[in-house]
Request: fold
Amino acid sequence: MTTGVRERAPTKQELAAALKRARESTLRLVEPVTDEQLVAQVSPIMSPLVWDLAHIGWFEELWLIRRLAGSEPSLERFDHLYDAFQHPRGERSSLPILTPPDARAYLADVRRRALEILDDIEFDYSDPLLRDGYVYGLVLQHELQHQETMLQTLQLAGVAHARHDQLRVPPRPADVLVPAGSFTLGTNDEPWAYDNERPAHVVELPAFTIERHPVANERFAEFIENGGYRTRRYWSDDGWEWLQAECIEAPPYWEAVSPAEPVQHISFYEAEAVAAWAGKRLPTEAEWEKAAKCAAVDMLGEVWEWTSSAFTGYPGFTVFPYAEYSEVFFGDEHRVLRGGSWATDPLVARVTFRNWDYPQRRQLFSGVRLAADA
Ligand code: AVJ
Ligand code: FE
Reply:
């Protein structure tokens, strides 16, 4: 199965194969991880890995078993343990969550039952949950996104080292001019798009330039050498306040980076500051998407790129199929990131996909691509 607008609905075999592939990569990710590492609370902003594992199963049970077949949860207490809104990430290791062997057994059991239901199901295409296999796409993308979350935890734990050495950014920044005019932001016909990517709507933008590649470490190093972290005017008020409170002088893992790779693990504030130092600015998410769609700049799969946009609903937004994916995060607290990183599965990393996080966050595989008024 590929991304992009599909000609026809995926078959049951294709859905089962996609679920299998996602599960294999989840299990591969935790294969070298000890049970002790699985239960560790690595950071207050991350769940213990064993929580992510069981939560993947819980989400699959919720949508592919309870919703589709109307069955009861396997255990009543799972809703309170594995619903992400019940307990903050930093408290999850002190909850009575499943042990690593039980979490693995639960994942396998849910999968077995979900595949039985898939086998029996009558695809009712008037049901928006089933049309184009939507609910299967929801569960798949959920698992794939949690893999990236788990990789962030592994990185913070020092267990994994970001496997990004295939990324190379040319030494000289190259600008692409995107002429003024309108384009369509978002999508109506990407079958597995999230509610926050819809509806497609026309947006008019003045001309702007955007760089062909994200900022590389060597350029970021120049920013540091030029006193970037000590120069007030490069920083927003919030950014400067954050910088003073955290005493930050470089991105995390800075000692180990290669010059030609995109800078990673930078916060929105650092992204803004390096842009100001370069005499540029962050793109808005509309500019980012226009460049990807109309100037055909390849912008997927390097690093997540901070945009200047707050995460909000597009005009005409409607919740589907649950408010806790997107809507509860709308507002001015979160900034949008675009593009997907080297750790993002291609099923998720599409041109209309919107990620979001708090501006101070650096656990993400996040970098920046610079833009400017034309
Ligand atoms: C879209 C990456 C911000 O991890 O909080 C996982 C994805 N939603 N489970 C997140 C998600 C529910 C979400 N992000
Ligand atoms: Fe989740």
Q: What stands out?
A: DSSP finds ten helices and nine strands in the chain. The longest strand covers residues 304-310.
